[in-house]
Amino acid sequence: MVDKVHVKTTINGQEYEFLVEPYMSLLETLRDVLNLTGTKEGCNDGNCGACTVEMNGRIVDSCCVLGAEVNGGTINTIEGMATAEGLHPLQQAFLEEAALQCGICTPGFLISAKSLLEREPDADEHRIRYWLAGNLCRCTGYDKIIKAVQKTQATA
Amino acid sequence: MARVFIPFALRKMTGGATDVQIAGATLREVIDNLEEMFPGIKERLVQDDRIKVGMEAVVGEQPTREGLRAKVAEDAEVHFIPHIAGG
Amino acid sequence: MVATQEYKVIGTRPIRHDGLDKVTGRAIYGADVKLPDMLYGFVLRSPHAHARIRSIDTSAAEAMPGVVAVMTANDMPEAADELVDLGEGAINFSHASDHIMAMSKAKFKGHPVAAVAATSTNVAREAVAAIKVDWEVLKSAVTVDEALAPDAPVILDGWVGDDLGEKSTKPNVGSHFRHEFGDIEKGFADSTTIIEHRYDLAMVHQGYIEPHNGTAIWDQEDRVRLWTSTQGAFTVRTQLAGILQLDESRIKVTPTEIGGGFGGKIPIYVEPLAAILSKKSGGKPVRILMDRPEVFEATGPTPGGWVSVRLGVKDRKIIAGDADIRFDAGGFPGSPVGAAAMCVFSCYDIENTRIDGWDIIVNKPKTAAYRAPGSTHVAYAIECIIDEICEELDLDPIQFRLDNASKEGTRRGDGPIFPRIGNIETLEAARDSAHWNAPLDKNPGNGNVRGRGIANGYWFNVGLKSSVNLSVNTDGTVMLIEGSTDIGGTRASIAMQAAEVLGIRAEDIIPTVVDTDSVGYTDVTGGSRTTYATGFAAYKAAQNLIDELTARAATIWDIPEDEVVFEDGKFSSKSDPELSMTFKEIAGKLNETGGPVSSTGAVDLENAGGGFAVHICDLEIDPETGKTDVIRYTAVQDVGKAIHPSYVEGQMQGGAVQGIGWALNEEYFMSDDGQMVNSSYLDYRMPTSLDLPEIETVIVEVPNPIHPFGVRGVGEPPIVPPVAAIANAINDALGIRLREAPMNPGRILEALKEKNG
């Protein structure tokens, strides 16, 4: 057994300090060490996007990052998207536009879409579809997800 | 009389007949009367006093939910089809 | 055609009750379950498609620090070798047990042979790797034709299938049945046009994003508690009881939120293993999560196989139809070939028909239901042949379908007569749609070519059993307790039906999906039955609640019960117009007038009214590369009555897109020795948002006469037409008929090469 790694990081604006096995992915770290289970596992090999989180300002598949790598970094997950003031406009739009069915992919889509709109608030439909192509949804056919993102743009 | 359709695999027992007119106010009576006419056919349709697992009886237009107690209308069609499921 | 009845709640689009938890990451899915002192399980699986187990040595695994329990098939209770009714389908528990963990022989790659519970997943994985299995690798058969060949290996030892009422002489025939009506020989003799072709399809997976999971406790009183994401907690209970040889009453199944199912989360896989490992650990909770390759290789995809259809036409009428349907069932019998046989001719009124169905055992994972199971396969064949007939006879493809459409009174291919169905209305809506009437520029000028295709599809939609409990809160809201897993908004669609009866808002119903101890028996969320059947149970429970409250109003006003009426959400006296109370007002008086009021509703229903879906598809194909883009897509469907139109549209769009993936990309790519070589999302390649256009929807409402609000099943019909619609569009664009799915760039280029010489 190798020694655990000491990690200090900021997650959703809070300071976290913990020990993690050196082989553990960020996804496992969030879910199993920190009990932040809103980030989901679909494939564990970087293809479905269900585990998407924001790391140091960029979106990543957290299954493809080691937990130890986030030392000193900043992570944002689905748990930090709503605040005491209420839901993020994307969350509200997803509800109103019925942009989820089973909901397992929803946290990943919300994190990805938020990142897009922060960079490119006027992204057109093709650009939205391109940006979200890293997130798989098997229920909706994507139509209502795209419309929810567009609705968020329109009401911003 | 109900019009009872014979599953293809059992038509050997009915001399090739696709369907036969059978009296009976309930599915149980219909099957008993079918057995009178074609001995041996009942055990191919019924097991432990219910329609065989893996098979369902259609009385009228719909698979019956009442099993052998299902009421059979005077001119109803009766079918025995493989039980099928959805996803 | 649009339903004319006016409703207050039905047909509106409230925010779903479980939505907030699902957009905030708060909802608990199967993998999120965590219990004190929990152990982590992992499963050893066969690396071979077909191999006998000579011996298993688990000693090294058992000796590893952190390993608490190790199991093999020797730890599986002996289960009965007979068919048991499972509501949706039937199960042979002996086969199920052998499927859950191989007794003497692996029948597919990924077949479990041992499992470990340890203090971490990592230790469990390492322990599994330390288990030694001495394999005798056997010859495998992975396709229908291989399994039927004279030199085919025997896959399921001792199995004798039924072949048209006789014992089959071929070892891998699960069953062979036939439906025959009219005079098929005469029908073809009278035909002036006869077209026959065989259509082949690869095995495909439902592709739900959440892997299978189970967390179980088997305690010292032989009570089992299980948390799992499943389409039906009660069906899991029945399966567990049969496999673990326990009374159902000793098992409590708690359904967590579920990350997709599409039919694939009706069977169980790791759940019994978690329970047995728990027992062997002294009752500690054990959680097993599958990884993605395990989901692909060892759960239940939908079969591959082939469908051969011959149609005979005279005077623009189809007068004869002959179909031969052969599905690969996987390592155990039980493919959805029965449903395929029911569906193959269901869009048409054909006097003379014969349908042969073959269920064939092969060395691939045991197949399960996938959204209208079997119907997509047969629609691929018949809807393409219909298109060929129209091409040959120069007929309009929608008019020809209308001229031959099944309707109320038409005899289905498996015998029964159709009740009121909306096939014609759906075809007419497609004919009148904006998409069908929009011109398509077949040569957009960039070197690509475009084509348009259309196809029809049918699914029968099941009914079955559901239970709902209602109780009134004094603030006028109502708790709704149900047993139907909510995969796509059914808490809302069920609550809306109760709200409509009670004259309150959907938001004033608080629905909860509960465990098997806490509500009456409820069949799976499958067969497009949930909004129909559990909604019907909610309707009944709400009617019963009104009866209770009517009696209470009579008590409050001290008048006879039959003096009280409930209309427009108000209780009132027939004789005294001064006496009137809203639902909310009477709810506020319950505590001073006799206490709480609650009700139940339970149903066991006939089928949910057949559903028809007509899809129109425009493609743009690059003839240099064979790459195909769907550039416009419209799904038209008879839904009976759309309770929550947004989620109805969502079902239509989602089903269409799964069908598009099936048509263009998805397949189990098998090596000759039965290895799936693309068991990752990267290589399996489901559609992404970038692959698709907007999916337009046209909702047709031909009310189902046996449902109080006219609901028909919605979820399954939309996956039926896409493969055929895309094949027809490819033909329209390129003049090539692709008779093997997926119709990927390689196949398109091959066909173009053949055509152009």
- CATH top level of the largest domain in chain A? Alpha Beta
Low-confidence stretches of chain A: none
β-strand number of chain A: 5
Question: Would you tell me the overall average pLDDT of chain C?
Answer: 96
Going across the major beta sheet of chain A, what is the strand order? 2-1-5-3-4
Q: CA-to-CA gap between the ends of chain A?
A: 51 Å
Mean pLDDT of chain A: 97
> What is the CATH architecture term of the largest domain in chain C?
2-Layer Sandwich
**What spatial order of strands do you see in the largest sheet of chain C?**
10-9-11-19-18-17-12-31
Give me the CATH superfamily of the largest domain in chain A: Beta-grasp domain
**Whole-number radius of gyration of chain A?**
16 Å
The SSE order of chain A reads EEHEEEHHHH
> Major β-sheet of chain A, in short?
5 strands, mixed
Q: Predict the CATH topology of the largest domain in chain A.
A: Ubiquitin-like (UB roll)
What fraction of the residues of chain C are assigned to beta strands by DSSP?
25-35%
CATH class of the largest domain in chain C: Alpha Beta
Sheet with most strands of chain C: 8 strands, mixed
Intertermini distance of chain C: 49 Å
Helix and strand topology:
The complex is a heterotrimer of chains A (156), B (87) and C (757).
Chain A (H helix, E strand, L loop, with lengths): L4 E7 L2 E7 L5 H8 L18 E4 L2 E4 L12 E3 L12 H8 L9 H14 L5 H7 L11 H13 L1
Parallel strand pairs in A: 1-5
Antiparallel strand pairs in A: 1-2, 3-4, 3-5
Chain B lengths: L1 E4 L13 E4 L4 H11 L4 H4 E2 L2 E2 L3 E5 L2 E2 L13 E6 L5
Chain C lengths: L18 H5 L15 E7 L5 E7 L1 H4 L4 E6 L10 E3 L4 E3 H8 L4 E2 L5 E7 L2 H9 L2 E6 L6 H5 L13 E2 L2 E2 L5 E9 L2 H7 L2 E9 L11 E6 L5 E5 L4 H12 L6 E5 L15 H10 L5 E4 L2 H7 L6 E10 L2 E14 L6 H7 L8 E10 L13 H19 L3 H7 L19 H9 L2 H4 L11 E11 L4 E9 L5 E5 L7 H13 L6 E5 L16 H28 L6 E4 L2 E4 L6 E3 H7 L8 E8 L5 E11 L6 E11 L6 H20 L16 H4 L10 E6 L21 H13 L5 E2 L3 H12 L1
Parallel strand pairs in C: 1-16, 9-11, 12-31, 14-15, 18-19, 22-23, 29-30
Antiparallel strand pairs in C: 1-7, 2-6, 2-8, 3-7, 4-5, 9-10, 11-19, 12-17, 13-14, 13-16, 17-18, 20-28, 21-22, 21-27, 24-25, 25-26, 28-29
Helix pairs in contact in C: 10-11, 11-20, 12-13, 15-16, 18-20
